[in-house]
Amino acid sequence: MAFGKAPRDPFSTAVGSLVERATLGALQTEEWGQFMHICDVINATEEGPKDAVKALKKKLSKNCNHKEIRLTLSLLEMCMENCGPRFQSLVVKKDFCKDKLLKLLNPRYNLPIDMQEKILTFIMVWARGFQGMVDVSEVKEVYLELLKKGVEFPSSDTSNGGSKIGKLYSELDMAKMNVRVMSSILKENVPGSENPDDMNLLQKLYKTCRMMQERIMELLVTVENEDVIVELIQVNEDLNNVLLGHERFSRNRVRFLENQRIQREREELYRKQPSAPSSDLLGLSINSPSSVSAVVRSDPAVSPSGTDDSFKPSASEPNKSAGWTDCAIKWTITSRAIYEEIDVVLKTEAKKNTD
């Protein structure tokens, strides 16, 4: 049972079949006219660039035939010079320049030195970019990886003079000094309590180091002096570290300022909240009006309901935290009512005794 379509043979397409025939090991030498025809087909058709790259990949993959590899490299070189960005942008991807081309440098293929140098020259030249709109970031990354591993690239006809080398070292010394100053500022200042002058200088150094790093990345793909390349790689790593330190410092500073803002808002909210009533106002002392009302409620001689209606709080009256003036008025009214009731009781008893 089939689970999907089988992958299409890259040599079955129109341009793929041309690539296969133009790179057969039986050929004595390059057929330049056929190479140029392949370039025309690639440029003229929509799928031409993709089909051509797939065919080139298959031709280079696990191929130990040196004659076929040599013909394929010659065809690739002509296509890169005569085909447009649609083709070039596919070749400078990692899945081609690293996974196919560089694997041919493995000792098991035992390629001749001139073919190995040709492959390395491809990588170096492509990493420097094209005139068209081609993203070379991936091949540039491959090139830098090779430099870090100590791979020696073939020298070109253009050589750097002693004055240019001296100027480059001068620029690198300036970059190193900026890195040291920037690192010192980051160590001496704490996010949230930093020195304003140090912060102004730090921002200027950050911008300068960014520009220096861009300059170094450009030099890494153009400079051929091995000693200078080693120095460029080291300074680039130092710049990377100090720029990452600045980013961490900035994040911590933003976090500190945000916490301060939240704390200020909380304090302001607490200040605006109403204060709780005093315990003196809420307490019930012996001399308070509440004690008097309790006595009145316990005396059956007071009003029939057991309490004085004049002492009942109404909906419009204030709560317990009202002023003592209102309480005093209520006490006076209640006391008068009690005295009147007592007077009536005494007169009634006196009259009974007289009778």
From TrEMBL:
Residues 163-251 form the GAT domain. One of its GO terms (molecular function) is ubiquitin binding. GO terms for cellular component: endosome; membrane. Residues 22-154 form the VHS domain. Residues 295-322 are annotated as: Disordered. InterPro entries: ENTH_VHS (IPR008942), GAT_dom (IPR004152), GAT_sf (IPR038425), TOM1 (IPR014645), TOM1L1_VHS_dom (IPR047013), VHS_dom (IPR002014). The keyword Transport applies. The keyword Electron transport does not apply. This is VHS domain-containing protein.
